[in-house]
User: Fold this.
Amino acid sequence: MCYATVRKLGFPTSMNENHRFMNTTGKIQNKGQVTIPTAVRRQAGLSKGDLVNFEFQRGKIVMTPKLLIDRSRFPTADDEYTPAQRRIIDARLAKADADIRAGRVSKAFSDHGEFIAALHNEAAKLVARKTKRPAK
Assistant:
């Protein structure tokens, strides 16, 4: 491939032109397999079992690491609470769901100012109710 063809395809021609370019060569094996050089794997943070995405863009094959969340590495709520605590939490969640289904929810506020005003109104009602109690 001549220099003009390399330039036309957009391949870097030296380390100075593109600092990410590594002068490594791989050979396509059976079934299209290619070994990614160790230095490139380290730089990309890839290890055995990682997934990668392949795309063909403007005459180049672009390989991008695919990030997935390994849920087995994160604790679940069952791991953090005792069975008794879990029953209490589940009961409270069930009550909250029942309140929502029954329509016992506060209205939606258009902004934080409206929400603060509603809180002040509710606080004033509580104070007024406490002062109106009959003396014993």
Summary: Confidence is low (pLDDT under 50) at residues 1-18. The chain has two domains: 3-16+32-66, 72-131. Residues 122 and 128 are 10 Å apart (CA to CA).
